[in-house]
Design a protein that fits this description.
Elements (H helix, E strand, L loop, with lengths): L19 E5 L5 H13 L15 E5 L10 H4 L2 E4 L6 E4 L1 H8 L9 H8 L6 H7 L2 E3 L13 E3 L6
Parallel strand pairs: 1-2, 1-6, 2-5
Antiparallel strand pairs: 3-4
Helix pairs in contact: 1-4
């Protein structure tokens, strides 16, 4: 029996190929869209997936303001955070984060998408690094046209 043919091949920083992907969020359900985006950010859609390496692609989401939440989740769902001081519990809804996205000074950092996708990534340094590969814009324009991004239809992904 030839045991050399059964070796597992792991990705290395030299063999990782990172692409740029554009996803249109128009009329997409937020959670379903973000779960597929998290899979792309981690690189789980590639045959060369390695859990301890950043082998995912860079994702650009356009038309983020046209994303949909089912039912009345836009106003009823609450996200909580805690400042660390007594009485410092803050709550906010997805609608609050959508309104905040129009005021954010850092372009490409949409608070709602960052919150949702961050919960789907690993809670370690690698997950924080993978989250920096996500760029979300409310309109149809983005400043990464020079990277030649690939238009990806998220509905055809599994």
């Amino acid at each position: 029996m030839d045991t050399l043919s059964y070796k597992t091949i792991s990705a290395t920083p030299e063999t990782i190929e990172k692409k740029w992907v554009v996803i249109d969020a128009t009329d997409q359900v937020l959670g379903r869209l973000c779960s597929k985006v998290a899979k792309i950010l981690r690189g789980k859609n590639k045959a060369s997936y390695t859990p301890n390496m950043d082998c995912g692609d860079n994702v650009i989401i356009i038309n983020a303001d046209k994303v949909v939440l089912n039912g009345d989740k836009m106003d009823k769902r609450e996200y909580l955070r805690y400042t660390g001081y007594p009485g410092g519990q803050r709550s906010f809804t997805p609608r609050d984060l959508m309104e905040k996205s129009h005021k954010v000074t850092m372009k490409g950092k949409h608070p709602l998408f960052i919150k949702v996708v961050k919960g789907m990534l690993p809670k370690n340094k690698l997950g924080a690094k993978q989250l920096t590969n996500l760029h979300v814009f409310n309109g149809a324009e983005h400043p990464f046209a020079d990277k030649n991004p690939i238009e990806l239809d998220i509905n055809k992904m599994k």
